[in-house]
Amino acid sequence: xxxxxxxxxxxxxxxxxxxxxxxxxxxxxxxxxxxxxxxxxxxxxxxxxxxxxxxxxxxxxxxxxxxxxxxxxxxxxxxxxxxxxxxxxxxxxxxxxxxxxxxxxxxxxxxxxxxxxxxxxxxxxxxxxxxxxxxxxxxxxxxxxxx
Length: 147
Description:
mainly alpha
């Protein structure tokens, strides 16, 4: 009996480009960990907030204390859901479906906008735009191989 792959490639010619494979693996790791950790912080928010002052003191980052005083558990719930959406998009791209690219791109836009909404920031974080933009552009270069 032949084993079925967990995530079969079902695109135009069935061959996944190496770049797409590498990007998807990075997304599975990065967004998957982000979803899991954000979910854990949401679930154990009170315990997490008790540890924050000690951690900030240990890493000499006491100036971040005011930031953590304004954070709410709903922020972490939103980030967990949006990160899970990014993983879902990567799964669809792994299967060579263009739909995954659109799901992933929307999730990246939401990840950039979420801190602005929850923390009333005047603009997005430059590093987030740079990293998300690079991944979206690299993913877009593989769209021709997707159906």
